[in-house]
Design goal:
globular
Length: 358
């Protein structure tokens, strides 16, 4: 397991590279050019700038999260050809600087969805929270406004310039079925996976967050069956999945550890976090400890270990603790604690294996 840490860039993150470097076992950053609109080709000069800054702190840039997919690709419009070509060019540039994994998602209109970015918990910490009834009753414009109010730092997936014509976006998806979305994903992957494979890069799709339809929009990467299907669309080691325990785990029907064991050879990058799921469909993001949430993080890490996982992993969203003022879900302290919990499980499994072999 190769530990990495998400970083949003200079002037766009409350966490510094110097701080990241001090977290035990972290070897690289998970990054992106967040100021580049979806569909645009990334400039090599900007990519090299991130590489230079990271390497000054002894960190690599081998994992990109995300090169976002333009909405016209998801909708299957003729204009998708231009955006797919830009995607291919970006893949080639990223390969030039040593990138090994590119994360992307295929969620219509919205990326991750939450109703409260700083829900207070019993211990006084705050965390990202999803209230199902509120989403079911809410006008999506209200949610966009809430996200737009968090303008000190960028909110990937909630870019105001992209969502300013929300009505048009929803109208465009009005007659798009799940099967349509699957067909458009297949077309996209048939174009870009061969390029990724030729350049030594693994593309990895992120599950939908949460793993069910939101505001009537179709969601397709939600379960074991859908992961199996997406991996079969283009049978290549460069067509993989980011197994996000928190996204998939929001649905209690998903057995995350079993998915790790089944798809281990197609998981180049793991997101590991815990969530507390309630009977009414609400969920809140907790510490990484198994006992604090609904997911057995110990069993999930064990599944990776038993599978001989040598890919990248990062602690996913953390709580906001000790008065830290930070991007929702992406402070320093709780994610660093999460890393040490994950390493603790991993090291114990390593020691157990060594003793068994002795």
């Amino acid at each position: 397991m190769r530990m990495v840490f998400r970083w949003y860039g200079e002037g766009n993150d409350t966490v510094s590279l110097a701080q990241i470097k001090q977290i035990p076992g972290v070897e690289g950053i998970v990054w992106a050019l967040h100021d580049v609109p979806a569909g645009e080709e990334w400039a090599l000069e900007d990519i090299l700038r991130v590489k230079r800054v990271a390497e000054e702190h002894g960190l690599h840039i081998e994992v990109v999260e995300s090169v976002n997919v333009h909405e016209d690709i998801k909708l299957g419009y003729p204009s998708r050809e231009k955006y797919i070509e830009n995607y291919k060019k970006t893949i080639k540039k990223l390969a030039q600087v040593g990138v090994k994994v590119i994360c992307y998602n295929f969620m219509p209109v919205f990326d991750w969805t939450r109703t409260d970015l700083y829900k207070e918990m019993e211990d006084g910490s705050t965390a990202l929270f999803y209230e199902k009834a509120k989403v079911d009753q809410m006008n999506p414009n209200e949610l966009v406004k809430r996200m737009a109010d968090q303008r000190d730092l960028t909110m990937p997936g909630w870019e105001p310039e992209r969502l300013k014509d929300l009505e048009k976006l929803f109208a465009a998806y009005r007659h798009v079925t799940e099967e349509d979305l699957w067909n458009n994903l297949k077309y996209f992957l048939e174009q870009v996976v061969p390029v990724a494979e030729a350049h030594g890069i693994k593309l990895a799709i992120h599950p939908d967050d949460p793993p069910w339809p939101v505001f009537g929009l179709p969601r397709i990467i939600t379960s074991r069956e859908s992961i199996k299907r997406v991996l079969s669309l283009v049978d290549s080691p460069s067509n993989g999945v980011i197994l996000c325990s928190g996204s998939l785990g929001a649905n209690p029907a998903n057995d995350v550890a079993a998915m790790v064991r089944e798809f281990a050879d197609r998981i180049p990058f793991a997101h590991i976090r815990n969530v507390k799921v309630y009977e009414n469909g609400d969920f809140i993001e907790t510490s990484h400890r198994t006992c604090d949430g609904s997911l057995d993080i110990c069993e999930i890490v064990k599944a990776y270990h038993e599978s001989g996982f040598k890919g990248y992993a990062r602690p996913d969203h953390g709580r906001h603790i000790w008065g830290e003022k930070c991007r929702p879900g992406y402070g320093l302290y709780d994610r660093a604690l999460g890393i040490m919990y994950l390493w603790g499980i991993w090291d114990a499994l390593e020691k157990e294996g060594q003793e068994r072999r002795a």
